[in-house]
Amino acid sequence: MNGFYTVAVTVCAAAIACAILSRFVTDGSLKRILSLVMGAFMVCSLIIPVKNALKDFSLDLSSYPSAEQITSTADEAVNKQVVAQTRQNLENTLGALLLQNGIKSNKCEVILADSGENRIIISAVSIYIDKDNADEAEQITELCRQNLGIEPNIITE
Length: 157
Hints:
By secondary structure, the protein is an alpha+beta fold. The chain has helices at 2-24, 28-55, 67-100, 137-148, and strands spanning 107-116, 119-129, 153-156.
């Protein structure tokens, strides 16, 4: 704020000096030359204090994330959401597939991994069944191999 105060004082002092000086000159051609010189003086008296006032001004944007960081964070959030939704869809589909084949499961869990490059890999499949249905483990394994391409972990409860 002190810098702008200096600018205002300098401009006022320059304007007063030019007004007083123009009062003493009455000749037409000399007055025009003096007006040109005073105009240049006024422009300089405006530019130099403003430059000095803005010299101490600094704009620090380092605390804000860059556009690349924002995009990267958004991409990561979208990828996590896609993996979570895909996991949910696979678990629902696997449960429906088992029901279609007459097998009742307590719970199906699918563990996925994001391998980058827009690829998701099925890491593991766990199927929880009752001890009474333990004899259907071979059929469950075969269904998972055919439809998901992975051998499941069958857990009896």
